[in-house]
Amino acid sequence: VDMSGLPTAPRSAVDIDYSTVPNNPPFVIHVANLSFEIDDEGLRRIFADLK
Hints:
Shape: flat
Order of helices and strands: H
Distance between the termini: 40 Å
Radius of gyration: 16 Å
Helix content: 10-25%
Number of strands: 0
Strand content: under 5%
């Protein structure tokens, strides 16, 4: 399997143009690849400590 086309760093290391990121609420995110068992409260707990 040729893996040379895959990223070599985690996505968090990819440069982000912060000028395109909103700094006033409401904020909207897209969360994918979740377990079927996750619910709204579970997502709130995951993101609760982020600032």
